[in-house]
Amino acid sequence: MSVETHLGLKDPESEAKRIEKFIRHSLSNADCETGIVGLSGGIDSAVTSLLALRSLGENGVVVSFMPEETTPKRDEEDVTVLENKFNLEVKRYGIDPIVETFLDLMPDINDLTLANIKARVRMVLLYALANKHGGMVIGTENLSELLLGYFTKYGDGAADVEPIAHLYKTELKDLAKSLGIPKSIIDKPPSAGLWADQTDEKELGGTYSEIDEILYCLHDLHLSRSEAKEELDLQESFIGHIYDLVDGSSHKRVLPYSLDR
């Protein structure tokens, strides 16, 4: 069995329509007509924004771009490309003044804490827009990030609807190509842009194609670490590292712990 052959979308357009239907039904069930999406310039939010637009129409989606001082110029350029190509109306909110307030209160915080603050500030703004428009926040989390815990709890991990959380990062490329997302976005190294030269794959220690093969063994095939090693031509230590990330982030994928009554 080749794990790689099991990853990928065989019919991306059908999958797009399925997701669009899911978005419409999710909002309709909550008696909402407006979806709120945070656009970063990356592939996940680009795909989500476009699917929300196709599902809800121009008047049914509010798209927001929230840059700060470490946001790469390329992301700002890609947001403009998406805006023009797909007739997206993108609201822009620079978050530096809000972040600076936190730094004034806590000047000794480290880079990771600051990165989490930025993600949570953005989510506060998205929910403020949801309140303003009587809408729901549509998340941009993919399955790879969800399983790895590679998101900020109550930051980019907070949403009312998660339409692409069943798709691995590599599968999103198939969907993005089908939707006509610009190649510059599809091929751009994934990054939250939370500090200079930050990329997902640098932090995680491998490419998403490698990571997704491991996650497929764990999540879809329910293989043990040793069984995954037999299936994959990857270092045992790296396989173990990914399994550890999944195990260690389980608290991010459940409701807060509480006592039974």
Supply the CATH superfamily name of the largest domain.
HUPs
Mean pLDDT: 94
Domain unit count: 2
What about the largest sheet?
Answer: 4 strands, parallel
Q: How many distinct beta strands?
A: 4
Radius of gyration: 19 Å
State the order of secondary-structure elements, H for helix, E for strand: HHEHEHEHHEHHHHHHH
User: What's the level 1 CATH class of the largest domain?
Assistant: Alpha Beta
* Multimeric organization: single chain
Helix-strand category: mainly alpha
Distance between the termini: 47 Å
Helix content, binned percent = 40-55%
Query: Under CATH, the topology of the largest domain is which?
Result: Rossmann fold
Lateral arrangement of strands in the main beta sheet: 3-2-1-4
Number of helices: 13
CATH architecture call of the largest domain: 3-Layer(aba) Sandwich
